[in-house]
Design brief:
The complex is a heterodimer.
Chain A lengths: L4 E9 L6 H10 L15 E7 L2 E8 L20 E7 L3 H17 L5 E7 L15 H11 L2 E4 L8 H11 L22 E2 L17
Parallel strand pairs in A: 1-3, 1-4, 4-5, 5-6
Antiparallel strand pairs in A: 2-3
Chain B lengths: L11 E4 L3 H12 L4 E4 L11 E2 L1 H8 L6 H8 L7 E2 L5 E2 L3 H8 L8 E3 L2 E6 L2 E4 L4 H6 L5 H16 L18 H7 L4 H11 L13 H17 L4 E4 L5 H12 L3 E3 L6 E4 L9 E6 L2 E4 L3 E3 L8 E15 L12 E5 L10 E7 L10 E8 L5 H4 L1 H7 L4 E12 L8 E3 L10 H15 L15
Parallel strand pairs in B: 1-2, 1-14, 2-10, 7-16, 14-20
Antiparallel strand pairs in B: 3-4, 5-9, 6-9, 7-8, 11-12, 12-13, 15-18, 15-19, 16-17, 17-18
Helix pairs in contact in B: 1-10, 1-13
Classes of the chains: A alpha/beta, B alpha/beta.
């Protein structure tokens, strides 16, 4: 039994309008909005999930639209332990883009990162299977070749959304009491020097702090 | 949002992703302005980016070493984030305030810099960070320490509206030299206070009113008091994280980002660059309009002039800590001008693998100063001597530019080049100045409510 909460930074990747934010909205607040505006104002969203007696806290980072013109900053991937690469099963172009993101992650990100490939918008196929432009097998094959988790989801109906996050959570090594924090290279950070600016040590207003 | 629908009209267009420009886009986006931010280069940071080792070789060396050789010596390229412009944050400085008030602290982690050192008669000494260090410091004799203590007590107790705390000194009328005289401080103490605490790069301040020096010393003392070891902070993964963090803030508030997008043409109203106002920019992705543009000097060279100052910077890779620093993982060394017969101080900023800016076992030392002779590389010699063996050296000279006009005539608002100072205070002055000129109101930092996190 482990009562520690494991925090996981998860980044979203995928072409614009494939439903990245909608998947998160479904997962975080079990909600869906048909004509969702691009995400504004939230640094990241968090959601806790219980997995086999453990609590996993997802810290989910949205691209904030910076993927549109190849302008996603390297900062985005820093210390990310998991990624969702999302494509739209009705848009072949978005699947090509997904391949690009897999390559990008292999180059930029931490080797142990858990990556899930997600084909979204399967609800569209319910009435009309002709709308499907990316075969399920294609997605499965790519995921298998690259060692990724694979799900087909619908943010609209909620199909497989929570399942995707739970599957990621199950693959993440859980924090046990006394574990040291590690950085992206797996190097332990033992750190009195690291600081939290927002909750700064000594009151900032005081003068006469200097005694040299 | 479709790839096809791309708005062509914005409230503000920003060119260049240096930290000055990124802070401004972040602040203006949060204010509700619709911002388009473009960079001609394929990475964030502009002139003040942090680059990988391969990018560094490409930038500075005509014949870069082969990838195999580089990796054998220095490890993986992506472990390197080398600052092109060396600076530290003052722990209690304005950039720290802006970071906190905008919550950009969500994206960037900081460490305190282990120490500040000052060069005196051929050796370096730690600038005392607390009373115990001060008592044992060999920088001053015992009587001088007492006079210094009196001086700092005056700084600490000074209250603008209580005349008795002024001890007869007028910060706006008395020069700093007169203040030193009042406390009977000797030349070497003056040098210490003026250069290692007030962080002046030359001695011009001595004959100027004391107030700016007073404020700089207060900032230094408050910054040291905040975390204890030195007044400085440094972000993990390098200074290049700062523009990225503010760009993310802007994007989160609706800002649109385009890297790797050179400006093909700038258009002015009445089709006249001389008399018209800014109208639009043309790029490979289309033409974009806004009532005003903010840019770094490289986008409008004709609208800038030289400040007359040129800075030389030498980026040095070491595979050992700097001798005489107790193996500090990060530090600043100030070589005051008078110690080496110069007019301007030489700065050395040292960071290491502890900050995720280089591969394990390496240290980065960046030396900088304002050029005074026609053999600038020789001017850096006193600093090279302090570092011990140097694995690799990258040297560059930058001319500093400033805008010719304030932007009120043509709606082109330009930032200044990053100067030779060791911290970001002049940069944030520039941000506030541009913000005022663009919006017509001063920048007021109010702590934003915690963002919604479920």
């Amino acid at each position: 039994m482990n009562s520690a909460v494991t925090s996981i930074k998860l980044v979203l990747l995928g072409e614009a309008a494939v439903g990245k934010s909608s998947i998160v909205l479904r997962f975080v607040s079990n909600d869906f909005s048909e004509n969702k505006e691009p995400t504004i104002g939230a640094a990241f969203l968090t959601q806790r999930v219980n997995i086999n007696d453990n609590t996993v806290k997802f810290e989910i980072w949205d691209t904030a639209g910076q993927e549109r013109f190849a302008s996603l900053a390297p900062m985005y991937y820093r210390n990310a332990q998991a990624a969702l690469i999302v494509y739209d099963v009705t848009k072949p172009q978005s699947f090509i883009k997904a391949r690009h993101w897999i390559k990008e992650l292999h180059e930029q990100a931490n080797k142990d990162m858990i990556i899930a490939l997600v084909g979204n918008k399967v609800d569209v196929l319910e009435n009309n299977e002709d709308e499907r432009k990316v075969a399920r097998e294609e997605g499965e094959k790519l995921a298998e070749e690259e060692g990724l988790l694979f799900f087909e989801t619908s943010a609209k109906t909620g199909l497989n959304v929570t399942e995707t996050f739970v599957a990621i959570g199950e693959k993440i090594p859980l924090k046990t009491a006394g574990d040291q924090e590690t950085d992206s290279n797996g190097v332990a950070i033992s750190d009195e020097q690291r600081i939290d600016l927002a909750n700064s040590g000594n009151a900032a207003g005081q003068t006469a702090g200097c005694s040299c | 949002m479709n790839q096809e629908e791309l708005d062509t009209d914005y409230d503000v267009i920003v060119l260049g992703t240096g930290i000055t420009e990124c802070i401004l886009s972040g602040l203006l986006s949060v204010d509700g302005k619709k911002v388009l931010h473009i960079d001609k280069q394929d990475h964030y940071g502009g002139e003040a980016a942090s680059v990988t080792l391969s990018q560094l070789y490409q930038k500075f060396k005509q014949n870069p070493i082969s990838q195999e050789e580089r990796e054998a010596k220095y490890g993986k390229d992506r472990d390197w984030n080398v600052d092109l412009i060396p600076k530290f944050l003052m722990a209690n400085g304005e950039l720290t305030n802006i970071l906190i008030h905008t919550n950009v602290t969500n994206y960037v982690e900081f460490k305190q810099v282990s120490g500040s050192y000052v060069f005196k008669q051929g050796k370096i000494y730690k600038v005392p960070a607390n009373e115990i260090e001060a008592i044992s410091s060999p920088l001053m004799g015992i009587f001088e320490k007492r006079r210094m203590k009196k001086f700092l007590e005056w700084i600490g107790t000074y209250k603008e509206d209580e005349l008795s705390t002024h001890l007869g000194l007028d910060l706006d009328k008395n020069t700093m030299d007169e203040v030193y005289y009042k406390f009977g401080l000797g030349n070497s103490t003056k040098e210490f206070i003026g250069h290692a605490m007030a962080l002046w790069t030359n001695d011009d301040y001595l004959q100027q009113p004391a107030r700016p020096s007073f404020e700089r010393i207060v900032l230094y003392c408050q910054s040291v008091a905040r975390y204890g070891k030195s007044p400085y902070l440094y972000p993990l993964y390098g200074l290049g994280e700062l523009p990225q963090g503010f760009a993310r803030l802007s994007a989160i508030y609706g800002g649109t980002y385009m890297l790797d997008t050179p400006i093909e043409e700038v258009a002015y109203t009445e089709g006249n660059e001389e008399t018209g106002k800014f109208h639009s920019v043309k790029t490979k992705l289309g033409t974009f309009k806004a009532p005003l543009v903010i840019a770094d000097p490289t986008y409008f060279p004709k609208k800038c002039k030289s400040t007359g100052q040129r800075v030389i910077r030498a980026i040095c890779i070491l595979n050992h800590p700097v001798p005489g620093t107790g193996n500090a993982d990060s530090l600043q060394i100030i070589i005051p001008q008078s110690q080496v017969g110069r007019k301007n101080d030489i700065y050395v900023a040292i960071v290491s693998d502890a900050h995720n800016v280089c591969s394990k076992g390496h240290y980065l030392a960046i030396i900088s100063t304002i050029i005074e002779t026609d053999k600038p590389h020789i001017e850096l010699e006193p600093a090279f001597k302090l570092l011990g063996p140097i694995e690799e050296k990258f040297m560059g000279i930058a001319e500093l530019f400033e805008p010719k006009e304030d932007g009120s005539k043509d709606n082109v608002f330009l930032s200044r080049s990053y100067d030779a100072s060791s911290h970001f205070e002049s940069m944030t002055d520039d941000v506030k100045d541009i913000y005022f000129r663009v919006t017509g109101r001063p920048l007021v930092l109010e702590k934003k409510a915690e963002e919604e996190t479920a």
